Amino acid sequence: MKSMRITHHPVLGKLEEKREVKFTFDGKPFSAYEGETIAAALLAHGVRTLRIHEEKKSPRGIYCNIGHCFECRVRVDGKSVVRSCITPVTDGMSVESGMLNVSASMKGVKP
Ligand code: FES
Quick check: keyword Transport in the entry (predicted)? Predict the structure, then answer.
């Protein structure tokens, strides 16, 4: 799969000039650029489902992308209800969907 990452941005500059960091999502290894949000880094790898709705069991991901709706919430290093769209990835971070169904939706995603 071709990367979906924006590599040239008129305001943020060139991403490839930034340091690469490693993190995991539901135990699978991923990379990100320093300063990139969790949601953006996962989307760059083709991961669109960040959790499963508690009652409807439907996939949830980025919605507002500005920290208002909480649709993108994940667990980070054991802390629940972290909004992935406004939380930067840090090296060694452990991100969890909290739902096993999300791992199943990542079939075919190459970290
Ligand atoms: S997508 Fe709305 S809070 Fe993250």
Answer: no
